[in-house]
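Q: What does the assembly look like in three dimensions?
Context provided by user:
Components: two
Sequences:
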Amino acid sequence: MLVKSSATIHLKLPRASTSVLVKNLYLSCDPYFRRRMNKPQGRYVIPSLLVRNMFPVNLDILNSIIWLLFSMLQPIAGVGVAKVVDAGHSYFKKGDLVWGFTGWEEYTISAPRTLFKIQHTDVPLSYYTGTLGMPGMTAYYGFYEICAPKKGEYVFVSAASGAVSQLVGQFAKLTGCYVVGTAGTNEKVELLKNKCGFDEAFNYKEEQDLDAALKRYFPPGIDIYFENVGGKMLEAVLLNMRSNGRISACGMISQYNLYREEGVRNLSCIIAKQLLVKGFIVSNHFNLYPKYMEMVIPLIKEGKICYIEDIVEGLESEPAALVGLFSGKNVGKQVVVVAHE
Amino acid sequence: MLVKSSATIHLKLPRASTSVLVKNLYLSCDPYFRRRMNKPQGRYVIPSLLVRNMFPVNLDILNSIIWLLFSMLQPIAGVGVAKVVDAGHSYFKKGDLVWGFTGWEEYTISAPRTLFKIQHTDVPLSYYTGTLGMPGMTAYYGFYEICAPKKGEYVFVSAASGAVSQLVGQFAKLTGCYVVGTAGTNEKVELLKNKCGFDEAFNYKEEQDLDAALKRYFPPGIDIYFENVGGKMLEAVLLNMRSNGRISACGMISQYNLYREEGVRNLSCIIAKQLLVKGFIVSNHFNLYPKYMEMVIPLIKEGKICYIEDIVEGLESEPAALVGLFSGKNVGKQVVVVAHE
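A: Here is the predicted structure of the complete assembly.
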């Protein structure tokens, strides 16, 4: 016989705590999680999102710790939108909406410095996992700060309907660039052209020869490439870059599930074409967040930026959502709703 | 019966010419010649040294022209030290020593803007093909302007006894960096340590595992890599770069004789370690030449910079010297003497 019983737990921080106890509402689901599951090899460090600032230790050690946490089945640390339940820090009070470093769980105890208080609540809250959060800042920093775009330049974006790149393409259009994106389904290609305002988009899975496809879409060549995929796409892009082109390297999702990375040819183009290739981890550039918000909030409110989200319900959906990213199952930014309030 | 006869030709420019007729004394022999012999493929352009500034046309067209010139067995264009025989430009007069864009021939008609008048003649004239010419500027621009070195940083240099890198290593030591170089013979390794003042040097041909070798020489990792070789060396270096490292991409000699470039793994390190990779062609940065001369001339005169040259006699030695570069036959900067005065 099944006996049902229920009890109420009053969640509260210990009296001396300086942390913030939050109830998670939306959780972000991002490709970088996959890389943190790899056992660190050699000096190949993978600094995790906001953790770096929390623990100023050697990155190798930090990386090993992160991997251990994964392997020991601790809740996965990530970014989310949450509501403050109890705060040991005077900046936060019960009921505040925040976004920042939480975890794949219903409630998280976070360090105050890893949380941003949400100021604008007249936009969808889930946007703080996307256009108003880490992916938005990634698009902003990688495109404006690294690529320094000029009006009329030719911009190519891979994984273009993803959390970051759909914004890069729209920022590029607002700058007066010509923008082509690539994605893995015709549905995404249509969204890029019809909803995000890309000049062109194509389904890379339908192209036999990526080099030929890029030559077709960029007869004059590419000035700016926002790199999200790596491997064969990068190999083809290098052949099609113009002199003094810039490549903002944000991710290489095509490589994360491989036992050993693919070799990429055509790197000598970096010299012959005097290319800049710059990798970055956005968590080190959040000093620019207020400047970004100043730019993007009016654009959203005026409907000049759209943001495609793929929202699934329930914490239990998060693992499948993560796995889905690597086969391109998501259409737009993958968000998981943990609780609605 | 063999009849010997001789006649004197008086070399002179046509009256209306604005060019400069020079007698070549020293010619530079550099790896980039090899790349200009490839038929340009697709948009893979190879802007030639000083030619770009001379002909402001589309680079694809220019590249095809350069290739055609090679294939039609014209004298190979290159950089050299020469003496003015006749000048159609008032800045130059007969007897002036110059360096700049000449050719693999005894006499060349050059455009005035491709020649620099030699101001300092109390240093070996051949240095203007090396430390005081294009390789020197390459080391200066790539190391100081791209890599922005700081005292105490860890610097790795490949092809380290070559025309450019022997200088990079010495500039790095003058900046207070820890410098390790790699070369392909034990003789070169000894020169790097004993003559050029590198902290360490190793023969890459004696290493089974380049990654392990780099970990041995750089336990803390590499901050700055001056890239001359590409391929497997770059693959190993990427694993050993530190966060925020800089890679100045100057050449990839290991790839120039291959039908198809090798694939390079570990590119995702560019993201995880937030690396900067910058390719450059030094001819676009000669606005800094006076600043460089101001720095380097006193260093040479005070004996604080040494420069190893591999000088062969006679124009007929140039092709073999060029071929020799790709098997590492040269020890130091490869120079060919065409005439002694």
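Follow-up: Chain B touches chain A through 47 residues (CB under 8 Å).
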